[in-house]
What we know:
Layout: H1 2-14, H2 21-33, H3 39-48, H4 55-67, E1 71-74, E2 79-82, E3 92-97, E4 103-107, H5 111-121, E5 131-135, H6 138-143
Helix pairs in contact: 2-4, 3-4
The protein binds zinc ion (2 copies).
Amino acid sequence: xxxxxxxxxxxxxxxxxxxxxxxxxxxxxxxxxxxxxxxxxxxxxxxxxxxxxxxxxxxxxxxxxxxxxxxxxxxxxxxxxxxxxxxxxxxxxxxxxxxxxxxxxxxxxxxxxxxxxxxxxxxxxxxxxxxxxxxxxxxxxxxx
Length: 144
Ligand SMILES: [Zn+2]
Ligand SMILES: [Zn+2]
């Protein structure tokens, strides 16, 4: 996780963006938890970490992290995870545990490729496809 924070620092410096304390903390929280977190959970954790309760600031920090590729939004859960491969353009595939909300990010070779094949039959041009697979994580599957 230290690496991801460093990557983010470097990226912000190179691109003239501000890596503010709130942005940093939100990213740290996401990377530490290793699971999908909703905006409210993130707000709670920020408060526990001594930040003021300022939802708009936290939401803007999340937007910033997602927009710059340090975090991803999991649409199915309406929540967020820290990116495991920051700093490079990638097509993530998320494995989401339905039992504990653990999220693992794998790199999909090219998810839009297979989707494109189906889509082209419908005359639809795919620009971006994200895989969100739902199931049981290793520890939940073995304790079930
Ligand atoms: Zn990622
Ligand atoms: Zn699980």
